[in-house]
Records
---
Amino acid sequence: MRELDFLGATMLQLLGGVPLTVGLTAGSVAVGAVLALLLALLRANSRPGAALVSAYVFVFRGTPLLLQIFFIYYGAGQFAFVRASVLWPFLREPWCCALLALALNDAAYASEILRGGFAAVPKGAVEAGRAVGMTRLLLLRRVVLPLAIRQALPAYGNELIAMVKSTSLASLVTLMEVTGIAYAIISETYRAIEVFLCAGAIYLVLNFALTRAVAVLEAKLGPAGT
Amino acid sequence: MTRGRGFFPIIRSWSIAAVAALAVLAGPAAVPALAKDYSHIVIATEGAYPPYNMHAPDGKLIGFEIDLGNNLCARMHITCTWIAQDWDSMIPALNAGKFDAIMDGMSVTPQRLKVIDFSIPYTQSPTTFLVLKSSPLAKMPDTGKRVSLDDDAAMKAAIAAITPALKGKTVGVQVATIQYNLLHTYLRNVVTIRTYKTTEEHDLDLASDRIDAAIASTSYFVSTLNKPGGNQFVEVGPLFTGGLLGKGTGVGIRKSDPELVAMFNQAIEAAKKDGTIRALSLKWFKTDISPPN
């Protein structure tokens, strides 16, 4: 019975970190999505833009998120000119730094996913749009984006799940989300397996809800009758 | 992908998962009975807690504990191998049999004694605060005054003296340390506590003014103050010892290895008597933090 009490108490403590985990995920995914759309459009519409975006994607996809968080939080704070700049009140906060790193990282992955979505839009659909006299913006809004997003959704769902798990790195910069709290409990009780089991269960539930939401969205956006 | 941190290797079937869950519910896993041969042991350290232990530029482990540990091993006529290991999983890994001893500035505390055994202490150094010289906290009262946590009245007076200065400030501390316990026990309603994976990280945040003070043992702050940029810091506040801060740092050893504890005790006693610990302490800390005889 004492074991169950311990698991219960651990679970309660870990649940205290859920708002931070969810908040970090939601915030970084929202900022990341806007950035990703801009990056994908830049890549599709100009040659120098494409080179710039592929360099960005190369760097952020090719280095560990752990290092990115570390550089943004501890790295930036090393320079006096950064500390004197208008950005410092923002970069001073661990929450903002973690959000920035997660969002930049998410944008790199999501822009690649969107690129795939754009590539999958049938040429005929675009030509049909042009034929009826749609402007570029209207064509983008009414034809290209809806089709591209629909194509990209399954892969983007994967990315969302990865983002939930990526927030576990925020404890590196003193944020006590679920994994951070788990580490703190372990260092007090030295019972790593039980605590990580509880933490794992929380991530599983969060991601279950997320996959269901994406599946519902997929069904809604799909062509009628499928 | 190399992004998130996975928690578990893939569990292949539900039956294995169920057995694992049952094993967890049944209590701490029993350490497999190994043949007790101590002619060769593995000692774990962090490699990130200078000058106790650190990585040299060429990647080798160096420091006070490496020198002392090798000296103790020579006295015990055994061979020792060092490995670097994360601080926060140090004790579970010891109990899981990944290595045989911990030498990582780990203080002997009642809480840790529930889970592992310790040798007699090989260092004892007080805990204090570190702040920027330019900070208003640089004038914290009771600086340099020794306060024992075992003396209730003195402790109450000391906390009352520093509370006005610390009110509403943010203090950085390494997670799962005796210093964290001190903050949590005596000052949790006064300061905001921010926890770090390593002590070096709270030094970085102190330098960049993200936190108002850091708390750690004076033996650690010696290394901070001697690093480039160390002259911007100053140690302030009382020198805390005793109570939940423990009896000093000892070698952490599994409870199933009392013979190894006895071997270390004898070697540490001898190293204390012939002045080895004192000499090594002066070499690495520039001050004597060897435990009293």
Note: The longest strand of chain B covers residues 233-241.
---
Amino acid sequence: MAELDTSGGGHKKGPGVKKGKKLSTRVDLTPMVDLGFLLITFFMYTTTLAKPKTMEINMPYKDPNMKVEDQSKVKESTALTLLLSKGHMVYAYEGIGSDPTKPPELKPANISKSTKALREIILAKKEAVQNLVRSGALGPTDRITVLIKPDTTSTFKDLVDVFDEMTIDDVKVYAKVDITPQDREFIKLTEAGNPQAQ
Amino acid sequence: MPKVKMARKSTTVDMTAMCDVAFLLLTFFMLATKFKKNEPIMVKTPSSISQITVPDTSIMLITVDNKDRVFFSIDRKFVSTYNNNEARLALIDGIDQYKGLGLTNNEKVEFQNGASVGQPFSRLKQYLSSSVEQQKVMDAAPDAGIPVDTSADVPTNELAQWIRVARNSNPYLRICIKGDVNTKYPAIDKIISTLGSMKIFRFNFITDLEQVPPGTPAYQLAQEEKKK
């Protein structure tokens, strides 16, 4: 170890001159460790290691000048419409509800805690479409198409949950569409016949 | 028999090793921490199974809180061939020229260093020249938030103007919408329609991570991925 020569000059210490007591070079590191851990604790609390995730959304191309014949059509037999309503309720019906004289049967599913009920409806429809493809009633490229129609009373969470459900159920074709007054009428009819669903 | 004498051992432990570890960890956490300016609003995002992380650069963030107020922000860093790293300054310069707000240099720097802004253009100058406390009060006001509607051309849709100027200063901006769990759908729809009328149909929702429920098609796909 490097030592400082403090003897000065060249003369040797004579007898009787006391040698300076060698001080230990050890330092008590306990306070330093304390400080270290205190800072660690601080930085651990302030760090957010989990970065937020993002969900990619592709909306259908929309142009007010688009001609009617250029718009993509949805086949009635492959379509499943989801109406997002108040109180985290989703009403699902098969088809696109184009015939107002025959109101479709709305299946309610509450998605406030889990989307399981909705998942069953979607998977059942998926299976039905696949069966139709196998039997030849639909072309081989046809697959389930989900139309998501959020009402003004639904929340952002409902929308994200339903979009997420599309990924979970591996539904390739889905779109967010504006709700029609007709659809609101369907919801009203269902709620009137089934008051506990509200 | 002679008594066995227990040697008295010192209770002091060598702290050097512990100290080393402590400072190693400290260095790690110091480097891993990113200090950000406090966001003016707290938002609890919904969760999804999506695993894509939000990139660090070139982000346009549109935040909507549970009172349906809209806040706007872009990040400072971005990868571009021009305009060395000061996207936010370019943005506020653009807004200042476009709306004729007459902002001073100090107010521009305040914007550059700040976080999301949620004030209409009419109050922007006042907001940027206020103290931190006053800004907090202004952020908490129920009439805070950038005015937005469903069209892109009407002058009342200030969000559309923000987006337009931001995209001028950095055309590679990715658009992220961060909504609260309790945000009403119409507020989100206004933003989506605004983007749609500007021919933007691809954007992102910011979400928390949640587990893929077992037994679902997505779960099976993930399992097959793992086997490969």
Note: Chain A has a mean pLDDT of 78.
